User: Fold this.
Amino acid sequence: MSNLEAEVVICGAGIAGIAVAYKLAVKRGVKNVVLLEQDAPLSLTSDKSTECYRNWWPVKPPERPGDAGTHGPDGAMIALMNRSIERLEQIARESDDRIGLGRRGYLYATAEAGKVPVLLEAAENAARMGAGPLRVHDGKGGSYAPAPAHGFEGQPDGADLITDKALIRRHFPYLAEDTVAVLHARRAGWFSAQQLGMWMLEQARAHGVRLVQGRVTGVQTTAGRVSAVEARREDGSAFTVRTPCFVNAAGPMQKAVGQMLGVEIPVFAELHLKMSFPEHLGVVPREAPMLIWADEVRLPWSPEEQEMLAEEPSTRWLLEPFPPGVHCRPDGHGESNTLIVLYNYHLEPLEPRFPLPIDPHYADVALRGMARMIPGLGRYFEKAPKPWIDGGYYVKTRENRPLIGPLGVEGAYVVGALSGFGVMAACAAGELLAAHILGDPLPEYAPAFSLERYRDPEYLRALERFGDGAQL
Ligand SMILES: Cc1cc2nc3c(=O)[nH]c(=O)nc-3n(C[C@H](O)[C@H](O)[C@H](O)COP(=O)(O)OP(=O)(O)OC[C@H]3O[C@@H](n4cnc5c(N)ncnc54)[C@H](O)[C@@H]3O)c2cc1C
Assistant:
């Protein structure tokens, strides 16, 4: 058994653990940081994401005057994302845009006139809480500026709500003809999360961070505080790292790693899959934004298919309505014709297990769901190109806010519950956790993400006021 020493040990080299290491070593000069990773960095969840970002968090109005602050449901998320996006923009500038940061926005579309006031209210509340102004285009004035295909500088923030059908058709002719409104959130888009992770990791290693292969198997405490981390290499040999500071950044395993310290982390996991395929017919323009259908969907089956599906109890569910939220975006540069499609219709909590349990109907359901929004995709029903399917787990708290802060045992911290927003939140999350570790002044939103919040009876009472954060 060999032994190491470190000022800080981080368990997990996903985007969250790497962001903490980067902040500690590169930005704050901490000398002896060890990143303990059982596998290859970024290879479990962080390289499976759709790589999108948004500061668009529909919020609820304050219950009482003065209740809003940045902590109301869910101004804290807007503040965290605004900070994280600010850092993404800085990194894009510093790195000669190695992360390929774009800003085409998220386009939510609906065919239900009744949804328009809901979108309007959500956007007005988000604007009040710092997401940027709302511009309404209802045919009575105001000019809509489409997003450029590349780059992020000089773009509007906030959102455009378009109810003028002629304007919708002019800019988005590929959407279903019965679309009555689109909401275009503008401080949003995508980037290479893999490059972001590698860029931060390279910088962190250049500043002394050691990436050590090993699976954390235990955390020792002495007199109630962290004193050492136990780990095992691939060849089975054990080692320990003496340290006063341990960070749980174990992604889908964060609950199990918390239990090593006797701490119950209040999270659950959902399986989220995504599929991509060569969209060689060019139905979705390569310069399209992220496209999200905000309505329930009945999958478009032919009468013969309907009859066949209805016969089998195991396939009847495919005829039921599917939830809102199917979404897609073009991926890649140059000659690429890849389209990524996601539809998460089975979201019951489950124990993370690998390899992922993949629904054999997933690609078909995702493609048909997406065709409700973009009918041209129906051209692939007969002869769909072979899809690539992967995914991972969203680890979530019940109100879908992350956990960033002390873990309740002296010297132990968590950066987790990053749900479906972990790559976009990584920079701000890493920065916030480093501030906790170093005793730096904390931003105003820090209490909204601490584990401590669940000890506050007021907070527990307010939990039902949180929506799902428009989680995709
Ligand atoms: C299909 C899908 C789409 C998504 N789309 C987006 C998106 O568009 N935008 C966005 O912001 N987010 C998105 N997400 C969410 C995002 O990918 C995650 O929130 C983020 O990757 C979580 O990062 P992490 O570092 O916490 O976890 P991980 O990337 O899972 O890293 C945890 C690491 O800890 C290691 N580990 C665990 N246990 C141990 C142990 N005992 N010892 C040593 N190492 C250990 C693991 O091997 C792993 O490498 C998506 C997720 C999925 C699944």
About this structure: The domain at 3-98+193-266+397-465 is CATH 3.50.50.60 (FAD/NAD(P)-binding domain).
